[in-house]
Amino acid sequence: MASASEADFRTRLQDWLPKLVLAPSVAVTLFFVYGFILFTVVLSFTSSKMLPSWDFVGFSNYVRLFSLPHWHVALKNIAIFATLYIVICTAIGLMLAIFLDQKIRGEGVLRPIYLYPMALSFIVTGTAWKWFLDPGIGLEHVMHQWGWESFSFTWIKSNSMAIYTIVIAAVWQSSGFVMAMFLAGLRGIDNEILKAAQIDGASNWQLYRRIVIPLLRPAFLSAFVILAHLAIKSYDLVIALTGGGPGRATEMPATFMYSYTFTRKEMGVGASSAVIMLMTIAAIMIPYLYSELKEKKE
Amino acid sequence: MSVATQDTAVSTGRITRTFIYLILLLFALFYLLPLYVMGINSVKPLSEITGGNMMSLPNEWTLDPWRSAWSTAQIGVQATGLKPYFLTSILMVVPAVAISTILGAINGYILTKWRFKGDTIIFGLMLFSCFIPFQIVLIPMARVLGMLGLAGSVPGLILVHVVYGLGFSTLYFRNYYAAFPTELVRAAQIDGAGFFRIFWRIMLPVSGPIAVVCVIWQFTNIWNDFLFGASFGGTTQPMTVALNNLVQSSTGVKEYNVHFAAAILAAIPTLIVYIVAGRYFVRGLMAGSVKG
Prior knowledge:
Shape of chain A: flat
Largest sheet of chain A: none
CATH superfamily of the largest domain in chain A: MetI-like
Order of helices and strands of chain A: HHHHHHHHHHHHH
CATH topology of the largest domain in chain A: MetI-like fold
Largest interface: A-B, 116 and 107 residues
Mean pLDDT of chain B: 87
Radius of gyration of chain B: 24 Å
CATH architecture of the largest domain in chain B: Orthogonal Bundle
Order of helices and strands of chain B: HHHHHHHHHHHHH
Distance between the termini of chain A: 40 Å
Helix content of chain A: over 70%
Number of helices of chain A: 13
Helix content of chain B: over 70%
Mean pLDDT of chain A: 88
Shape of chain B: globular
Largest sheet of chain B: none
CATH class of the largest domain in chain A: Mainly Alpha
Structural class of chain B: mainly alpha
Oligomer: heterodimer
Radius of gyration of chain A: 25 Å
């Protein structure tokens, strides 16, 4: 056996060893995440162009940002995209989950088919849909060849409709994942509750509307949070599918930030747009994470 | 959260069931369609795509588009095909996944079994970092990588992916270890086992399932990343960036068949992971969304 003082030293060592081992990860997070956020926030109040400068100009970058037509297009697009993406993914996901839950033969084959797009990158997804929706070789061309001469589908080339092609591709990529979340929620519901309601004479429609869907509330919340933050971050898909075009018609905040910072060399404006993006995501994520962590403690 | 096998007690009529099967099959077609289009057109000569029908099977089967995509296609200024970029992606992904997973395991172990005042705040800070829009770190990251002399290099990309992957890997292990009885750890402590010994002999042996989930998640995310690769890759670009450059290039004839073959090449590693370990893939998605 070790002597008393040695044992004491060992206890103390064991006491600070965990913190010491955790320290590098914490330091890295504080520096690369929170330090960098601070850096970008500070930058957004300076007149930085191609390189950072420390000439403070107050809120003028934000004023300029909100006077730029490109930023307004980006905001309008993200509103359209995020709304449709979240609503359609949730609707399709919920429907497929409820249908798959009806003792379907071949569920084991269907489920992986619905989900595999989630394994693909947005660049691959964008490439596939870009050519599939291209009027020259894709869907429109195919329909013409099949004899439907008047068929026209040129959304991807249209200023006003191109944003909806991004919705189609994004829904294709993520709706299977929402299905999986709802399916897990459905499988967690106690069948006794359903049986009791059936004895009381509830129809299937009532059963789902009044009992099942309210019980899925946590799944709805998780799906919303995940889809919302994916929507705001969406960059790759826009680049691969439309490149932000035609013209700048499918500009999003993420593509705006990139082009203003690195192509147009207006770093101050780019930084301020990134700050707006962060604040939007934080407004959604922080209350959610806070409630999740708090529940966990009890 | 696991997908149990229990089905609902709801019963449905014959017509409803037919309708349900119809909808389910239609959606299966919707999800399979782009894969079919990519696959079928990657083995056709170009003339059959521009002159023919995207949905029809090839008259003449050819693997030339695949050969071209892999070794001779013009990407950027050089006609190297995707091969060097594939190698870059592998060299970047393997260390980044390994390092972030190991660190995540240790962090999760400390945050659950060696709790201290403020540990929830630290975890909250790491957790939030999973969800930030990466645009907020692009400018300072570019400068720091430049200062470290890591800009445009594989080690630079590894650093970026480890740093921003740490939140998720910590989340996975923390939630997993939280369910592991702390009494066992205390008992081992009383028997004289130290910090690392407990981790090595007690925690790691039970970590198999969550390690698989974490590795798959990190692998898929890092392999599929585009923003960091495009911003910090310089000339050492990963697959996604190379694929995008190939598809978007405005010079010469658009070789659709080569683009499709290249897209499949970029997708193959994550698709294989999905096919081989789909169950864990789904679990990873769930754990990332429903914070336990």
